[in-house]
Amino acid sequence: MAARRYDLPFAEDGSGRFLPWMIALMVYLAALATVAALTTRAVAQRWNAGLEGTATVEVAPTGDAAATDAAVTQALAVLRNTPGVVAAQPVPKEEIDRLLEPWLGPDAAREGLPVPRLIDVRFTKGARVDVGALTRTLVTAVPTARFDSHSVWLERLQILGDSVQLAALLIVALIAAAAGATVVFATRAGLAVHREFIELMHLIGSRDSYIARQFQNHAMSLALRGGVLGVIAGALTIGALTVISRPIQSALLPDLAIGAAAIAVLALLPLLAAGIAMLTARITVLRALKQMT
Amino acid sequence: MVRFQGVAMRYANGPEVLKDVTFHLEAGSYHFLTGPSGAGKSSLLRLMYLAHRASRGTVSVFGHDIANTPRRLLPGLRRRIGVVFQDFRLLDHLSARDNVALTLRIAGIREDTIRAHVAELLAWVGLGDKLDATPPTLSDGEKQRVAIARAVIGRPSLLLADEPTGSIDEHQGMRILRLFEELNRIGTTVVVATHDQRLIARFHHRVLRLADGQFTVERQSMGI
Asked: Coil, helix or strand for B82?
């Protein structure tokens, strides 16, 4: 038997030709939005993991180096005697100078700027430390000390991460809706073009579901082709951005690392597009055919 | 089998093309439907193959009052009706084989069964060497034979043919009408619309005559 794909002449139907390109564009945008969301999530998790279970004590400079040293020593003593604190180490002055260098320049240390001293504090994993009580004890013992549990920073980071993910999700939802609308338009155009054939198929006993299957399989095939094209274009764009961003060394710029989860999600996008197209075409055709005799 | 009671038909808001048509086709009967061009033969057939609704009166097919038959039951009724359209209505992008097979595919018949039956029937109508030809490459006579094969492949209970011999030579025409008689002998009700009075005269069947939308039934043609 000769190769037969569809009973309806979709190959001669111009209304479906633009569909793969529209779907490709939408899947491309969805791929970028998805990777943006996954990257933000990964960065937030990385920063969260790095800061969780730690705190920083800042001892303000007094102008007298010996007095500042004494205050740091006093703060270390308080911290090391606190149950749940596994380590408290002063951050070396060279490290503080290095951290400030991008903002104050390389000569900041030599110019004698009053730079606070920092103490890294690590808590025992799972320990429940009464941060309020520790802060009060610390400030009583060392009035120039300030305890930073990173909670405000982590909270803001969490909000930022959640917002980016929500925005990406909304973008993907809007793209899915636009893809659905595109499929509805293409399917209605196809129904109009093939009306005569559809009537014939009805007359020889075709059920609506048989005709709908023709349209849904055609839409699925076109969307799958477009989806694969879109996701390949998205992957190439992300790859190019990764290469471009690699030489930029900055703690503030996230890595565009594409993990297994991201690859899996990207691979699912064409299937999702095909599924949306199939379902939308089926519903559109069944609704339209109900109006026919 | 088919019963019309006071049936009228109009297209959109146009004038009635059929008026007060009343007749009954018994199961297993064979009728010619005749009348001058524009008399309403094709319109009457459209009502019979459920392509159009009567504007008034009652059309009953296989015991179903069509006006009150749920839409979901229509495909089942239509599968029991084979139609040879005057303009063939073949799908140009499909081969002769796939055009004929379409009727069986729609009915959910297995592909291997379809393959055997379609090839056999197309060979019978003289198109055994044109199985993979598409309609645009076929002559009108060949297209008509494909259309006839498509109409009869599903062994319909009711066969409606609109000018089925109009584009084929007399020899092929006789063969096709004898095929219809074979089907009629095994129980298929046949209605052949034609304005060819010579053809009607050669077969000994009842004649439904239409003129100006009005209808008369003649008991039998002059058989030879």
From this structure: strand
Query: What residues contact A41, with CB distance under 8 A and at least 6 apart?
Result: A161, A165
Per the structure, the complete domain to which residue A177 belongs is given by 10-48+154-290
Is position A55 within any domain?
Answer: no
Q: Enumerate the residues of chain B whose CB falls inside 8 A of the CB of residue A205.
A: 75-76, 78-79, 81, 103, 106-107, 154
If asked whether residues A168 and A253 sit together in one domain, one would say yes
Last-in-domain residue among A143, A168, A189:
A143
φ/ψ of A222, rounded to 5, equals: -65, -45
Q: Per the domain annotation, does A53 fall within a domain?
A: no
Q: Number of helices (H) and strands (E), helices first, in chain A? A: 8, 4
Nearest CB neighbour to B94, from listed A7, A206, A290: A7
Is A205 within 8 Å of chain B by CB?
yes
Question: How far apart, in whole angstroms, are the C-alpha atoms of residue A227 and residue A28?
Answer: 8
On whether both A167 and A283 belong to a single domain, the answer is yes
Domain count, chain A: 2
A2 at B interface, C-beta within 8 A:
yes
Instruction: Report chain B residues whose CB lies below 8 A from the CB of A3.
Output: none
Q: How many CB pairs under 8 A join A and B?
A: 62
Neighbours of B124 (CB within 10 A): 14
Question: Do B52 and A293 count as a contact with CB atoms less than 8 A apart?
Answer: yes
Radius of gyration of chain A, Cα coordinates, nearest whole angstrom: 31
Residues A284 and A168 in one domain: yes
**One domain for residues A102 and A228:** no
For residue A284, being part of any structural domain is answered with yes
Q: Is residue A285 part of a domain?
A: yes
Question: Would you write out chain A's pLDDT as a tens digit for each of its 293 residues?
Answer: 444 468 888 877 776 788 999 999 999 999 999 888 888 877 777 777 766 778 889 998 887 888 888 899 999 998 888 888 888 899 888 888 887 777 777 776 666 677 888 999 988 877 777 878 888 888 998 898 888 877 777 788 788 888 888 998 899 899 989 989 999 999 999 999 888 889 999 999 999 999 999 999 999 999 999 999 999 999 999 888 888 877 765 555 566 656 787 888 889 999 999 999 999 999 999 999 988 76
